[in-house]
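Please produce the structure of this protein holding S-adenosylmethionine.
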Amino acid sequence: AGLPPGTRVLSNRWDLCVAARDRGLDASFSDFELPATADLELIACRVPKERAVVRHLINRAWHALAPGGRLLLWGGKQTGIKTHGKEAAAALGGAPEVRKLGTDYLAVATRTGATLHSLDDADYEALRPLLAYGGRVLFTKPGLFGWDQIDPGSALLAAQLLQVFADGPAPRTLLDLGCGYGYLSVAAHAHGAGAITATDTCAAALLACAKNFAAHGIAGEVVPSDCAEGVAERFDLVLCNPPFHRGFAADQELCARFFRAAAGHLHRAGRALFVTHRVVPAATLAQEVFRSCEQIAATPSFQVHLLKGPHRAALT
Ligand SMILES: C[S@@+](CC[C@H](N)C(=O)[O-])C[C@H]1O[C@@H](n2cnc3c(N)ncnc32)[C@H](O)[C@@H]1O
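Below is the modeled complex.
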């Protein structure tokens, strides 16, 4: 609301992009595709979690900023903001400037150099193959959840699919809620799932997931959405490894929204399969919106729950 008129918003998060548009801002959704127009006076960004993403952003900022334009990065101490500030200054040509801003730190780098001293961003833009278990190739990129190794929680959920599919007809329709690069969709497809809808808020995740749908011949669609908002269809099965953190902080309410979204997107006889870290009170969250919640697998770190009987209230 406090942004000056003419401010353009670019977000790799669909929910933020929608919120900005709702406030009348000119917002675009992409995987940090800053314009190479060399005409911006200021780029302001909270530091992303993954170093390759931050470096990619700094490199792209150089092409987007006018000479003398500034890049503002901010974040808490644990984000590595001081290092990012130094790297940004080295890349853009100015002297590092980092100062305290409440509990955060603000790093300012000015584009003074005639050439970009490009930072190694691990070739961030490129999707790359990750050799998953079972010999299935999945495409992924830095910054995505479990991008360089299959997440053990997601693997635990995938290991239950054979039994869950055997206990009923293979689902004709499936929702992969918070799909990331689509690991759970690929596993479900391999077990005979029908049409799959995969949703996520993260632009990079959606790009990678769409690539994996094409590579694995998966019928379905990959759509940007905040907790499946705007997805009108009901499904036979929902698969979910919900986020438990937003940025660097734990966020139980975000996790709870995924349980509600699952219940709200199932047919009456539909089922949901959730994997969560053991610290997440999954049974409590599930019982608010499902009649039946059964723990079907657990390790010292993770638990998988099979949920049935979405409450009527969720089926609006
Ligand atoms: C724990 S990861 C699981 C990813 C993937 N399903 C897997 O098993 O590898 C959670 C995913 O939820 C996505 N996410 C976070 N907030 C979301 C929201 N509000 N709506 C949809 N997806 C969201 C994240 O981008 C991330 O890809």
